């Protein structure tokens, strides 16, 4: 059975996708002041998933270009939403077997060197990226509101059925 934290992470991905439902290429390319555009955010989360679940966890980096264009601190750019979603879909599908294998014991293992001074457990990385998704979900919905879009999600979706609490 999939670990409960992985279930919560997958629910978070679903909610992020819900925030993206109906976004056009033109809207995804809109920059509001110094904010990154929605398509950049999609590329950024593809980079983050690749970094944790493929590069650090499995020593694989299928799309090195993401490290240059979408890492934290990368310069503003305006990529294609369709291209970024393609990267994201491929990376998450590739990462899912690793996530499915996680147990309470493996979540406590080191992911590898997080930076020059700190080690991070796989479980802490899972928490970080889960919360990272929620941050960017709010950002995407704020951008869409400023663009005048209506009918957007206003509250967390059906967590009771999609990812209810269960002990590990």
Search tags:
single chain, 168 residues, mainly alpha, Four Helix Bundle (Hemerythrin (Met), subunit A), 8 helices, 2 strands, 60% helix
Overall pLDDT confidence: 93
Low-confidence stretches: none
Coarse structural class = mainly alpha
Q: Choose one word for the global shape.
A: globular
User: How does the major sheet shape up?
Assistant: 2 strands, antiparallel
CATH superfamily name?
Answer: dinb family like domain
Strand segment tally:
2
CATH C-level label: Mainly Alpha
**Could you tell me the radius of gyration in angstroms?**
16 Å
Fraction of residues in helices?
Answer: 55-70%
Task: Give, in order, the helices and strands.
Answer: HHHHHHEEHH
| Tally of structural domains | 1
* Order of the strands making up the biggest sheet: 1-2
The CATH topology name reads Four Helix Bundle (Hemerythrin (Met), subunit A)
How does CATH name the architecture? Answer: Up-down Bundle
Total number of helical segments?
A: 8
């Amino acid at each position: 059975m999939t670990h409960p934290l992985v279930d919560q992470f997958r629910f978070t991905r679903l909610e992020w996708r819900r925030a993206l439902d109906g976004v056009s290429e033109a809207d995804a390319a809109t920059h509001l002041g110094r904010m990154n555009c929605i398509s950049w955010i999609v590329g950024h989360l593809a980079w983050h998933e690749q970094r944790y679940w493929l590069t650090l966890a499995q020593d694989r980096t299928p799309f090195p270009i993401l490290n240059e264009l979408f890492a934290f601190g990368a310069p503003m750019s305006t990529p294609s939403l369709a291209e970024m979603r393609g990267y994201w879909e491929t990376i998450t599908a590739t990462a899912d077997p690793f996530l499915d294998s996680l147990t309470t014991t493996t979540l406590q293992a080191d992911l590898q060197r997080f930076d020059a001074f700190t080690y991070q457990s796989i479980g802490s990385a899972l928490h970080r990226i889960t919360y990272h998704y929620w941050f960017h979900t709010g950002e995407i919905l704020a951008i869409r509101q400023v663009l005048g879009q209506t009918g957007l999600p206003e509250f967390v979706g059906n967590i009771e059925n999609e990812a209810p609490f269960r002990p590990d």
